[in-house]
Design brief:
about 425 residues, alpha/beta, Rossmann fold, 2 domains, two-stranded antiparallel ribbon, 12 strands, about 45% helix, about 15% strand, binds S-adenosylmethionine
Length: about 425
Amino acid sequence: MSDLSIVKQFSEYTFKYNMSLGRHGWLRLTPAYSVHLVEKVLNLYKNKDLVVFDPFSGTGTTGVVAAKNGYNAVLNEINPFLVWFAAQKAANYSDKDRDNIRRVFLEIIEHIDYYVSKENWIPNIFKIEKWWNTETLNILSAIRASIVDVIGEPKESNRFSLIWIAFCRVIIETSSVAFNHISMTLKSEPMQYKKEYITDILKKTMANIISSTDDTIKANVNIVNGDSRILNGISGIDVVITSPPYPNRISYIRELRPYMYWLKYIINSEDSSEIDWSCIGGTWGAATSKLMTWEPEASIVFAMLEDTVNEIAGTENKNSKLMSIYVYKYFYDMYMHIKNLYKTLNEKADVYYIVGNSTFFNVNVKSDLLYEKMFDMAGYSNISSEVIRKRNCNKKLYEYCIKASKNGGTTYKNKYVYAAPNSQTLLPFG
Ligand SMILES: C[S@@+](CC[C@H](N)C(=O)[O-])C[C@H]1O[C@@H](n2cnc3c(N)ncnc32)[C@H](O)[C@@H]1O
């Protein structure tokens, strides 16, 4: 049975979490990307005409920070759920919008009882009983049915999407998910929560999310749902600030699957494997077996990468071969990205990549040096890197900021206004 004192703590946690981080606390994506880091880079520039680009935008941190500071931003992300989420995070909300959301939300709350006695849709998550206790699951599915009844599925309505974001928070907070590890793990037993407790968390989370929208997003954020290896239709970029996937086998689909299933961005495990395979560094589910038969369309030959890959392949482990292909494919994909990024940049531009190293069977994959070499091969100049953080889970793991420039880079007046085909302009509820 659930314990009121635990639930009280729970609600407080939600409240504090949201209050301290504003929009950035709406949803957790591991590993977190530092708001301060983006601000630090932007502080190097004075000219608000510069266009900022994040080709791996995830939850949209770069875009929100840039636009709050008055810079127009372009974001690119392959995962449609994250594109949807970042669009809500980067939107402006008026008092009227907030009142409308509150009104609609009350209607949803009033309808929950009606759905509790019905059989409602639940997502096809593998071993769902390990995530949510049966009673909790029933309440969550009733809440979901009530939301759909009033505002439609997430993909059908942008106006009230903040309600879906509050729902995402509630599904994660009533689940057995533990965040004490770099990637999502499940505790042994899911807790049982009563309807009153769950709706209480939902109401508090909703109030919090709504109140965190009263800041102003001063500039435009354009979001493209695209592959950063291609980057078609994007141009006029002055400053790139990004954190791509690291070569460490973290799967963003795996991390985001509870939200993606509940919001119908994933319907079954085939969907998740397919999206993960399309992501750089993704090897979750069937994506792993696809690696064994993967063939590059061209080769990227440079000694440091070859040495690293050969060293991994030569270790005594049943997965040595697989992991050597994984590392090769990761850098192959990133090189395609780095080359195509060059075309999106203005005559002069600066790029900042936050990336971590990794180890496979004690072989150190020196991301800083490998990235430096790739930027060099792709024609960038002024290339350097610095350690910005030691990752605390393992002594040998660090995070670096790799800097590079096009034609020397500079802070100069940008002449172009960005307009990407098929992109969303994030006017309030536009
Ligand atoms: C480290 S995360 C970015 C986190 C982000 N800085 C934030 O604050 O949320 C890397 C992102 O790259 C995305 N990604 C992976 N492969 C991609 C590709 N080929 N094209 C575009 N985005 C991709 C992943 O979906 C993930 O959201």
